[in-house]
Amino acid sequence: MKKIQFTVVIVLLTGISLFFNTIKAQQMSIANSELNSKEKSIITISSFTAQGKLTELKTAFNSGLDAGLTINEIKEMLVHSYAYCGFPRSIRGLQTFMEVVNERKTKGIRDNMGAEASPIIDEKTKYERGKKILEELSGAPQPDKLSGYSAFAPAIDTFLKEHLFADIFERDVLTFKQRELVTISIITAIGDADPMLQSHLGLSLNVGWSPEQLSEFVNVITPTISKEKSTAAATVLKEVLKTRKSK
């Protein structure tokens, strides 16, 4: 009789364990398919920065700070943005952000400053470091022989590796995932850069964004851009996911 009772207890405990493991797996799946409020703010801030929509950007800055983005994280997003939408948009974004931070201070709101970028201690050249980071992002070794536009204008290859992927991407205020989210948001908002968007959507998958999160990215950025740009982004993403699935 005791043996039967013991067996029943074991079965019940096993069932309970499986139930909670299933719930945990479902929660992890949901977490991997949804963007949180900070990530959504990264998208809207980046989009409005790229388009120079300063009134909307002020609202997005306030929402981002309220969602928990630090001052230094937002500053880093704006610094990162200049590589994709130029100094004029980036600097106007920084000037607008300064206004928002000062206005919030006046209202007694104390926002978290956040961490500063760590110093880079590496004996490798910036070109080598940038090349390594690009290999991490792409998941593939970079060829030693230049081709395409890099061969046509070798200086751009040097600037990309030494400055974009070393000077900027190497800074640890933002993660590679966050930087790619900023990047695809800016490229989408600019428009007419489908090959670059396709490339960075692929990199976004490589650094950990899920197909569901990238689909939500399109939904989040859509109200901030034109219908044509939104349709283009959805089309490019569909092609990227189709190509990735067939591999």
Walk me through what this model shows.
By secondary structure, the protein is mainly α. Helix content is 75%, strand content 0%. The chain has 12 helices and no strands. Helix 2 (37-51) crosses helix 4. The radius of gyration is 22 Å and the shape is globular. InterPro entries: 4CMD/NDH-1_regulator, AhpD-like, CMD-like. Pfam families: CMD. Residues 30-93, 154-239 form the Carboxymuconolactone decarboxylase-like domain. This is Carboxymuconolactone decarboxylase family protein.
How much of the residues is beta strand, in percent?
Answer: under 5%
Class from secondary-structure proportions: mainly alpha
The residue fraction in helices comes out at over 70%
**N-to-C order of helices and strands:** HHHHHHHHHHHH
Low-pLDDT regions: 16-20, 22-31
Rg (CA only)? 22 Å
Distance between the termini: 57 Å
Number of helices: 12
Total beta strand runs: 0
Mean pLDDT: 90
Largest sheet: none
Shape: globular
Protein name: Carboxymuconolactone decarboxylase family protein
InterPro entries: 4CMD/NDH-1_regulator, AhpD-like, CMD-like
Domain Carboxymuconolactone decarboxylase-like: 30-93, 154-239
Pfam families: CMD
